[in-house]
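Give me the fold.
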Amino acid sequence: MQLGLIGLGKMGGNMAERLRVGGHQIIGFDFNAEAVQKLTASGNVGVSSLEDLAKKFTGRKAIWIMVPQGKPVDETIAKLEPLLNPGDILIDGGNSNYKDSQRHYKEVTAKGFQFVDVGTSGGVWGLKEGYSMMIGGDKEAVEYLRPIFETLAPSADKGWGHVGPAGAGHFVKMVHNGIEYGMMQAYAEGFTILEKKEELHLDLAQISEIWRHGSVVRSWLLDLTADALSKNPKLDGLEAYVADSGEGRWTVFEAIDLNVSAPIITESLIRRIRSREENNFTDRMLAIMRNAFGGHAVKKD
């Protein structure tokens, strides 16, 4: 099956390779010429423009978009629409807001095309392990793309599914990432408590390996944590700065809109934001208040 792929970064490149091995022809475009050359060298078809990408198809076009959410997706869809035929499918496999995907679906289908939103999880390990895919859109388009999903998934019948109408795929992925925030925060806090108990001389790498087998807290995330600790047990050279790509924020906003209490996900998001503040003003305010009412000492630079 032919698949157009726009965006050949680490994840997009790995997806292209997994699909190539699975027998599909990938027609790939990226503004990074080196990424296009790498795709061609691997046995796929690299092109230098969206127009060239569209011309390479011999039948119904299915084009997977892997670009940053928001304006880049809007602009990519706008550039592709003049190159499409009725029934062609646009797939947004990035981390778009589900409301944007619902809007794209309405706009695209009104012009005779089809739109599928795919919440994609697996990161840089997807090439080896396969990708988890949460899919929204019309049933016919999803079924047409089944060979693609079966190849990208961990196995043909596991790790992917059509979860609902347009926007549902990205909504489910949004909540997935919110849960991920909470899991990561819990692991980080637990390992920090272990690290601070200095008199016991605990080996965090060893403990993470113990927990990986038989423990109720075992997970793939713990597997990755154990591997990282084995390579850098003291986390030397790392800055305490944690980014967020948007999904955690959107999950918190949805929880508020739906009157759902989600304190763990919310606090994990707040902690990420706080990690970016140097000489944290909030903590300095707390210190000065404690000094004001209780005479507690204030540390100064």
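The chain has a mean pLDDT of 95.
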